[in-house]
Amino acid sequence: MTVLIIGGSGFLGTELVRRATEMGHETAATFASRPGAVPQAAWHPLDVRDPARVARVIADVTPSVVINASSGGANWAATADGAVRVALAAAEQGCRLVHVSSDAVFSGADIHYDESCLPDPVTPYGAAKAAAETAVRLLVPGAVVARTSLIVGHRRSVHERMVHALAAGTREGVLFTDDIRCPVHVADLSTALWELALSDAAGVFHLGGADAVSRHELGVLIARRDGLDSELLPTGRRADTPLPGGLEVRLDSRATQDRLRTRLRGAREFLCGGGGGGGGGALCTGLDQWL
Q: For the chain, what is the radius of gyration of the CA atoms?
């Protein structure tokens, strides 16, 4: 089987590519600036804002499955329009499509969100992700839309690196005590996404970790795992800042978990040595995380 990962050089994309090659699939992946680190994959340069190039890559690769793990942040042309172009090309080629979305599509007003909840974004990034979800579901009715939360793990995520920088005093910022999410280990997320991709599942699925933790608690867990002094981590309240977005966004993934073999561990487990993987996560407080 030939598979294609859009955004294959990113943090999640790299794990998806690695997993695909381990499963023995003929694997192609795209990159924006430089190829990823998995040599077994065929790498294709791609700017998802270029409709002709998107169509050409998918037509040339002729994959059975496309997973769109690209992320353009708050850039509407990349995050929303780019996802539409991928969906259009996948539909034209008759590919199975998995679209990776985000808990940013929710405002936090209801705190707990299961798969039946409708998006109510309050940030440009969340709005772009919500628009992409709608387009994907209309253009490819059999597609999987998988919402996830903070992706951490292998000590390589931006969140883990941020905690190290904060503890070392090489970067400014704070860990919010009132900002709660459901972090997921990148290995668990990748395995779950492939499980959904290779099934006949369709619709919206939630792939968040089992624990709801504050950004500060997450940082403390990382610090303890990595032998850092958690007392060095600066704290603050997001409610006291002008940053937009929901404070408590808890993805309820129980319905999705019930149909998966893959277990979505919580941060307290995978950061405390209870289940391998060695991953972790933390907080970036820069405006680019939220706008």
A: 18
Tell me the sheet residues that pair with 102: 148
Dump pLDDT digits (tens) for 89-147. Answer: 999 999 999 999 999 999 999 999 999 999 999 999 999 999 999 999 999 999 999 99
Split at pLDDT 50, 70, 90, the class of 285 is: very low
User: Residues 214, 180: contact at Cβ < 8 Å?
Assistant: yes
Q: What is the DSSP string of the chain?
A: -EEEEETTTSHHHHHHHHHHHHTT-EEEEEESSS--S-TTSEEEE--TT-HHHHHHHHHHH--SEEEE----TT-HIIIIIHHHHHHHHHHHHT-EEEEEEEGGGS-SSSSEE-TTPPP---SHHHHHHHHHHHHHHHH-TT-EEEEE--EE-TTTSHHHHHHHHHHHTSS---EESS-EE--EEHHHHHHHHHHHHTS---EEEEE--S--EEHHHHHHHHHHHTT--GGGS-EE-GGGS---S-SB-EE--HHHHHH-SS----HHHHTTTSSS---------SGGGT-
Q: Give the per-residue pLDDT at 280.
A: 32
Q: Which two tokens stand for residue 21?
A: 């090659």
**pTM score over 0.85:** yes
**What are the residue boundaries of the structural domains of the chain, listed by start?**
2-149+186-207, 151-182+209-289
Tell me the C-alpha distance between 261 and 249, whole Å: 25
CATH hierarchy code of domain 2-149+186-207: 3.40.50.720
41 neighbors 8 (Cβ within 8 angstroms): yes
CB 58 within 8 A of CB 95: yes
